[in-house]
């Protein structure tokens, strides 16, 4: 709780310092800027308070889930999704209103841009909390993300359009590529080059959630999370569970690139996922020796992701004829889609974003919904 309070305080202080960096242009402008900063601080604090309330509600929900039926759990997930959409719409309206108000009050475009960037960053802190790349946060953000998001647009001096495009590129490409350590992003509207550089990776306990379809197994005790883009080095089967005799659900061809979410604890099998609309779905498993993080693509290039090719169904030769081959080798599998929420060791990757002499440190904990901050000095670190 103390750590959470410190983070909230840091957001408010960061918003104030960022917004007051622009020089005052006369007493009237200075007074207006101070009022605009106060409005921005209140908007940021309100957004963080909502995020806090959501996290607390989800923790309470998880504690009571053990007594619910599967149907009740699914209904609860759907209701939470609808509520999250409504909150997002309300926050977007509030962001636009605050930005309009700030722009109209002060003659300093730098101040207005700083305030707008700070508020916008705080409102999407759930996404920016993971190096602008926590796509799986889904509204329950890491509180530190709000603090980081509050400073990105202001510190780098980017327009909202450029900030959104930078966010998309970092979250969908740069943060997920282990074969690229440095990159550049050109913010066309702001006419600035943003230098991207990765620093270190730490492993921390983090909470995750994804949908597990029927026919796919999942053991929450057998995953080390490390969200990455990978490439198939040759033809490879995607199976319903980690095992050479498991059901084949689809195939990838040589040089197909796709999103992965980590490996089994022994590293032998890699989890393949989809993150459509920011929601993760576990598709299956591929054998780790047949995939690589070397995408064989230049930096600053969007990575096109391949979908697994379906397995053709062979017609039966006669009535009651048994099918043969790996597709008929079933493991113990779930009978219906379910949502798995679990805590696992997670690769948290840090990067530095720099533009115009300013820089911002960002951190990505894969698709983490929340992070259990590990203050143990012996926590494992891996240099990226």
SSE order and pairing:
Elements: H1 2-19, H2 27-64, H3 70-105, H4 109-123, H5 125-128, H6 143-156, H7 160-172, E1 182-187, E2 192-212, E3 224-232, E4 236-239, E5 248-252, E6 257-263, E7 269-274, E8 281-287, E9 291-292, E10 338-355, E11 358-364, E12 370-372, E13 381-383
Antiparallel strand pairs: 1-2, 2-10, 2-12, 2-13, 3-6, 3-9, 4-5, 6-7, 7-8, 10-11
Helix pairs in contact: 1-2, 1-4, 1-6, 2-3, 2-4, 3-4, 4-6
Which descriptors apply to this entry?
384 residues; alpha+beta; 6-stranded antiparallel sheet; 36% helix; disordered N terminus
Number of strands: 13
Amount of helix: 25-40%
Largest beta-sheet details: 6 strands, antiparallel
CA radius of gyration? 23 Å
Residues in β-strands, percent: 25-35%
Fold and architecture overview:
With 384 residues, the chain is α+β, with helices and mostly antiparallel strands. It has 2 domains: 2-23 and 30-200 and 353-363, no CATH class; 214-312 and 325-336, no CATH class. Helix content is 36%, strand content 26%. The protein has 7 helices and 13 strands. Strands 1, 2, 10, 11, 12 and 13 form a 6-stranded antiparallel β-sheet that branches. Strands 8-7-6-3-9 form a 5-stranded antiparallel β-sheet, with no helix packed on it. Strand 10 (338-355) and strand 11 form a beta hairpin. Helix 1 (2-19) packs antiparallel against helix 4, helix 1 (2-19) packs parallel to helix 6 (143-156) and helix 2 (27-64) packs antiparallel against helix 3. The longest helix is centred in the first third of the chain and has 38 residues, at 27-64. It is globular. The model is unreliable at 1-13, 15-30, 105-151, 321-334 and 373-384 (pLDDT under 50).
